[in-house]
Design goal:
Layout (H helix, E strand, L loop, with lengths): L1 H16 L7 H18 L12 H17 L5 H11 L5 H4 L3 H31 L1 H4 L3 H12 L3 H18 L8 H21 L2 H20 L6 H16 L3 H11 L6 H15 L10 H9 L5 H5 L7 H30 L3 H13 L9 H19 L13
Helix pairs in contact: 1-2, 1-6, 2-19, 3-4, 3-17, 6-9, 6-10, 9-10, 9-11, 9-18, 9-19, 10-12, 11-18, 14-15, 14-17, 17-18
GO molecular function: ligase activity
Keywords: Ligase, Membrane, Transmembrane, Transmembrane helix
Protein name: O-antigen ligase family protein
Length: about 400
């Protein structure tokens, strides 16, 4: 156990810095497995009991494991392993909070992640500027070039960036106490992170951050806490900057006026997914057949994009309905409910914000079917889930400030 405690810091630093070399997916996979093994080494299984807090997570894993091995002829141990990372291993993070070394370094780990994403955003900004002769500030072409040459989907990198922004906002909540050098560093990091968000500009992530700002505002009002006008101004300025500096929103408005939503690929994906869910009597279907049946359903839409790129359901809730039926959907939504309920109860507003961010992003993307999505979800849960599952002695409010 003592040896495992000594490994916490280097393993978690390597884990968050693996975002810098995202294009080496094998290293990220290795770090997730190593981190999982570390948490397993901390577990005290004789003390582990099923409770109303952890039952939805365990049920989510059991349902998926059942579907991936027994319910249909097809089997996928890879998907079972991913489900283990998503729903079971994070439950063991409760034991991390019993280690003072973890509690002491938690904010530093969050800061390391924010540094990594700031550096990535600096690279993306430099690439964007270098690529101006090719895209001429056309948002769609600029993002296509970024995704093509840098090999990462815009939604996932925006999700990573948004998490870094939330981490950094949490770290700078007591901004006045920092020396001028750190204040300058934080300011530069915020500029870089928002620049990356503006360049890639994933709508669901931007909407998620706006909703989070509104929720935090209402919570502060409810607690009768004074809200700095400067903070409100900065939030509004950031939102306006993201919206106005991208042509995407203007073009979206034009599309809505000139076309029907039924002409969009998302309508096709959602309607076909809903049709498959109904045909399966809401009990799920063989995961190996889902994409094939979606492709068949797309034929009447006569869309090159739908057939060429093999579009999935583009909705995490629909994806779990397809794979595990209504019971899986209810179990998964219950995990989100547990996070939100106990994050509010423990006043862990960082974890509340991150949960809202993921809940919104799930509406338009299958976040948990790609490694980049699993990485960010797993990272946030192992860092913060244990703080709301434990008793009051393990809440995040008592963790030493960075």
């Amino acid at each position: 156990m003592n040896f495992s405690k000594k490994l916490i810091k280097p393993i978690f630093y390597l884990f968050v810095f693996s975002s810098l070399i995202y294009f080496v997916e094998a290293f990220q996979s290795i770090m997730m497995m190593v981190t999982a093994l570390l948490l397993i080494s901390f577990a005290k299984y004789e003390d582990f009991k099923v409770s109303k807090k952890n039952a939805p997570f365990l049920f989510s894993f059991v349902i998926l494991a059942f579907y991936y091995t027994l319910f249909f002829s097809s089997k996928s141990f890879k998907l079972i392993a991913e489900s283990l990372l998503l729903f079971v291993i994070p439950l063991l993070s409760i034991y991390l909070y019993q280690a003072k070394s973890f509690s002491k370094d938690l904010k530093k780990i969050q800061f390391a992640y924010s540094i990594s994403l700031s550096l990535l955003c600096l690279f993306f900004l430099a690439f964007y500027i270098y690529d101006i002769p090719n895209h001429h500030f056309d948002w769609y072409l600029a993002r296509y070039n970024l995704e093509f040459y840098n090999k990462i989907h815009g939604t996932y990198i925006c999700l990573w960036i948004a998490i870094a922004i939330l981490f950094l906002a949490d770290l700078t909540s007591s901004f006045k106490q920092f020396p001028i050098s750190k204040k300058v560093l934080f300011f530069i990091m915020f500029i870089l992170l928002f620049s990356g968000l503006i360049i890639y500009n994933s709508r669901n992530i931007v909407v998620g951050l706006i909703i989070i700002s509104g929720v935090r505002f209402l919570l502060l009002k409810k607690q009768n806490k004074t809200i700095s006008k400067k903070v409100l101004f900065l939030v509004l300025f950031a939102v306006l900057a993201v919206v106005l500096l991208s042509k995407r929103y203007i073009e979206d408005i034009q599309f809505l006026f000139e076309n029907s939503f039924k002409n969009s690929t998302r309508y096709a994906a959602w309607s076909c997914s809903s049709r498959l869910i109904y045909d399966s009597n809401f009990m799920g279907m063989d995961f190996n057949l889902i994409q094939e049946k979606l492709n068949e359903c797309y034929v009447p839409f006569h869309s090159l994009e739908l057939t060429k790129f093999k579009i999935n359901s583009h909705n995490q809730y629909l994806d779990f309905l397809l794979k595990g039926g209504v019971f899986m959907l209810l179990a998964f939504i219950s995990t989100l409910f547990v996070k939100i309920k106990y994050a509010v109860k423990n006043q862990n507003y960082l974890y509340l914000s991150i949960t809202i961010l993921f809940a919104v992003s799930f509406i338009t993307e299958n976040i948990l079917v790609r490694q980049y999505g699993i990485y960010s979800y797993f990272l946030c849960d192992i860092l913060l889930l244990g703080s709301i599952l434990g008793n009051k002695n393990h809440t995040r409010n008592e963790i030493e400030k960075y």
